[in-house]
Amino acid sequence: EIVLCTFTEKAAHEMQNRIAALAQKIHYSGDLSYLRIDTIHSICNQLISNHLHHTPLSNGYQTLEEFTEHLFLLKHFREICQGDVLNLFMNKWETAWNAAGELQKYFDKITEEFVTVRSLSSGKSQFQRYLGKAYSEYQQILIRENCVTFSALQKIAYNLLKKPKVADKITRGIRYVFVDEYQDTNFLQEHIVLKLASATGNICVVGDEDQALYRFRGATVRNILEFESTAKKEFRCCKRIDLTTNYRSHAQIIHAYDCWMASADWSEGDGKWFRTDKTIQPDPAAKADYRSVFSITGKDINDEAEQFADFVAFLKRQDIIEDYNQVALLLYSVKPLYSNSYLDALRRRGIEAFCPRARSYFERAEIRQMMACFAELFDAGRQDMDKGFADYLDGCLNEFKHAGAYPLLHETIGSFKEEIALLENDQELDRRLSDYFYRLLALEPFAGYMRENASQMRNLVIFSQGLDTFQKFYPHPGLASHNHREIREQLFRKFLYFWQYAGVNEYEDAENPFPAGAVPIMTIHQAKGLEFPVVVVGSLGEGRSGGNEVDRVLHELYQRQPLEPEKCIPRFDAMRLYYVAFSRAKKLLVLTGNQRRQPNALFDTIWSGLPQWSDVKDELAGLPKSVWYDEPQKPVVAKPRYSFTGHIKMYETCPRQFQFYRECEFRPSRPGEVLLGLLVHQTIEEIHRAFKDGDRTVLNEESIHSRVKKNFDLLRRTYMQPVDSTLEEEACRQIINYVIQNREELEHIFEAELQVAVDRGEYILTGRVDLLIQREHGLEVLDFKTARRPVVPDDVLLDYERQLCAYASAVERRYGKKPGKLSIYWTGEERKEDALMEFPYCSDTVERAECSFDAVVTSIKKKDFCVVVPPEPHVCKRCDMQHLCISEGVIDPQA
To answer: How many angstroms separate the CA atoms of 12 and 31, rounded?
Structure first.
């Protein structure tokens, strides 16, 4: 009955664990595994998945994140922008890549602010009218390609909530809605959460307008500033609770940033204020008295960085910190231009730093080597290539050619090149770019990185994910004589160049975001929600960005006018940004600057009169250690979730395969599911949902053929292997046969594609029940296998049985009803009696299954990925990692 929206997935998992701990404390015994705690994006995604047949999307839709949306716009640029529209945008932004990036901002804002195509088409400026044309084309192409952006995802979810019958189903079971970080929501998100709470009017939001940082992502501070009036208008009442005690920071730190914020002018001169009047108080129980706010001032940026590094070394030497990761350096940007001076100064003192978002991914040795391998493989020349990127590739190739320590790698690439060169007109290699990548991983130096260096291995994971993205946008079933030049052009000119240009972050471990022994250097945005004993804030002299051009162009078409005056926005945003930075500090807050680039006048109130760190070092060194060391708090670790098929079964099949594909998240070269199975399953799922909603037309043959054709066309676009056209006919045959023989069962659908979860204490077991049928005698669990009934060995049947029993147990816990029948339905069979395979629901089987799941999860948590008994040869032959396993002697190449 609770929906709780948080800003990040990590925060959602932490919140779920905290609620579980609280429930245990008050002896609450209810099942918490179905708490709806997630990001707004994920909640919208779940709403769409559950009511897909009421949306323009189809099964398997792809959600585009920032980079892939940019690529999508680029790929379809000349469809989206035609004729005079194309000329205008190219004249304004010069290149298609730039235009795609700028249009991305406009399109997101149009969606989030409910700007209509009609209002754009009748806009005052030609630019607005052309935006309307392009946006309209873009929406049609997204639906055609079964893709959705984050903003469009939310708009589709909102449209579901506007449909009375669908909205009633969604909100019927919701009694309470909670929203964290409300100051970071946008206009569309506010409408979504208000709709979710509409059945009861019970909504609680938590936020702080001083921490509103995401205007550039469409967030609006007015949502929190005007929430009281909004809630009174929507629900007739609102209770406000002010949280004004900071239990985190030293009293001087709180006083410094509180006075700084209060000293600013938060009005536009006519008495209208854009900040709540407040005074933040320290924890009354805190007693330590010392100077906790001071500055570092250098002659220039290099001297500033040297003093910072000396300060860090001093803290460690004096035992003021136990580990370097207790000091955080926060900067406006961590790109090399802004962070290198600090990184170099620390390095000269032998102090490690952790700065994964410096966008230096492509400078890592393992990535330069992999880029060189692909450049050599495809003879990537400089022709028609950006000069900077061409110079980068030349540098990688020169290093690679002079690296004589890896003869087998050079020899293997040479053999690949020869194989490609010998292709004749009608020949094709059953190889994709990912196949070459995984062959290279089995050779030195990459095999060594995989064994010995977790950071380098994780960066290679990111490379595999990049190749997977490339294959989705530029699908090729294999390398052939007629397409290898096209693949080369698409890979280097249309993907890798833009990937590098966009910038890639290095790997960050969500469970260990700040590795021991390294000073974290991060952006202020990245630090939001975190805390550190010592915080050093630089970049005080950087310029401040102005208002948003997108808002200036579109604001007259918004449903409501912007709250804050444009002239005030740069000042307001800068104050809020650095308030977040200053308030991350627990024990010490240090501000840095230099004489060449003095701190902005904005900081005069907090900067003026601060002592230098050299003036307080003796005082700090003389304080008792009890000042610095608090009672250690047990970190809240998100409870892991494991599914039967995606985790448990994969680990049992091969622990090493689990390690690479689930633990490390390498992307497989080829999809593991069979196209026919996907086609049948997705279409049957659509029929179940629509029929349950009362649509009887989905059962006629014409409707089934239409649905199969649509799903077949969509799958064929994303499936990169040659597709047999007879699959569509076979899918129709299986589905029509199933519908004819099970019409009576369809009348009793209780739930379709039901997500189930079981809290096992240390983890949550998840799964999906294909069909739940309600009979007079109880519930029936039905799982579909889109094939003929096999003659299978007993151990495979036991797998099916324990999976069904585990799912049935979850159903029983959720609904309080014991399922009376468990079945598998083999859709490839002609006769119903052959298609149905029944299993008994036995508590002993459930107990044995759950014990086996517990044992697997224990092994996963111990990171026990050793292969004691190799899997069946056919499993290894389908696995991308087979060459690595062969090179390490894990499997026999002759098996």
So the answer is: 17
Three-class secondary structure assignment of 383-422: CCCCHHHHHHHHHHHHHHHCCCCCHHHHHHHHHHHHHHHC
The Cα–Cα gap between 739 and 737 comes to 6
Could you report the per-residue pLDDT of 475-526, keeping only the tens digit for each? 887 888 888 889 999 999 999 999 999 999 988 887 788 999 999 999 999 9
391 contacts: CB under 8 Å, gap ≥ 6: none
Give pLDDT, residue 634. Answer: 64
Question: 724: exposed, middle or buried (C-beta count within 10 Å: 0-12, 13-18, 19+)?
Answer: exposed
DSSP state of 326: G
- 804, 839 contact by CB (below 8 A): yes
Rounded-to-integer distance, Cα 508 and Cα 357, Å: 9
Higher confidence at residue 10 or residue 67? 67
- pLDDT at 23 (0 to 100): 87
| Residue 507 DSSP label | P
Whether the CA torsion 741, 744, 746, 748 is positive or negative: it is negative
| Among candidate residues 341, 331, 340, the one with its CA nearest the CA of residue 298 | 341
Closest CA to 7 of 152, 178, 184: 184
Q: What is the mean pLDDT of residues 47-59?
A: 93
770 phi and psi, to 5 degrees? -60, -45
Give the Cα separation of 415 and 695 in Å (integer): 58
Residue corresponding to tokens 């190799």: 870
Q: Which two structure tokens, joined as six digits, stand for 653?
A: 């099949």
Residue 149 has φ and ψ, to the nearest 5°, of -90, 170
Residue 271 has what pLDDT? 64
* Cα dihedral value 486, 492, 495, 500, nearest 10: 180
H or E segment to which residue 535 belongs = strand 532-537
pLDDT at 793 over 90: no
Classify burial at 303, counting beta carbons within 10 Å of its beta carbon; exposed 0-12, middle 13-18, buried 19 or more.
middle
Owner of token pair 């499936």: 719
The answer, yes or no, to whether residue 543 has pLDDT greater than 80, is no
- Phi first, then psi: give them for residue 820, nearest 5 degrees: -95, -10
Write down the pTM of the prediction.
0.93
Is-contact 773 782, C-beta < 8 A? yes
Segment (H or E) for 447? helix 446-452
Distance CA 288, CA 368 (A): 50
Mean pLDDT of all residues in 455-460: 94
pLDDT classification of 579: cutoffs 50, 70, 90: very high
Distances (CA, A) of 138 to 13, 376, 694: 35, 37, 33
Return mean pLDDT, the chain: 91
- Interval 590-598 mean pLDDT: 95
Q: SS3 for 689-715, per residue?
A: HHHHCCCHHHHCHHHHHHHHHHHHHHH
Long-range pairs for 188-193 at CB < 8 Å and ≥24 separation? 188/111, 188/112, 188/113, 188/114, 188/151, 188/154, 188/155, 188/158, 189/40, 189/154, 190/223, 190/230, 191/158, 192/40, 192/44, 192/154, 192/157, 192/158, 192/161, 193/5, 193/40
Write down the pLDDT at residue 82. 94
- Tokens representing 745 are 């069962």
Mutual angle of helices 301-317 and 336-348, in 10-degree steps:
50
852 contacts 765 by C-beta, under 8 angstroms: no
For residue 672, what pLDDT band results from cuts at 50, 70 and 90?
low
**Residue among 160, 155, 184 at smallest CA distance from 171:** 160
| pLDDT tens digits for range 144-203 | 999 999 999 999 999 999 999 999 999 998 999 999 999 999 999 999 999 999 999 999
Peptide bond into 445 cis (omega under 30): yes
Q: For residue 723, name the pLDDT band (cuts at 50, 70, 90).
A: low
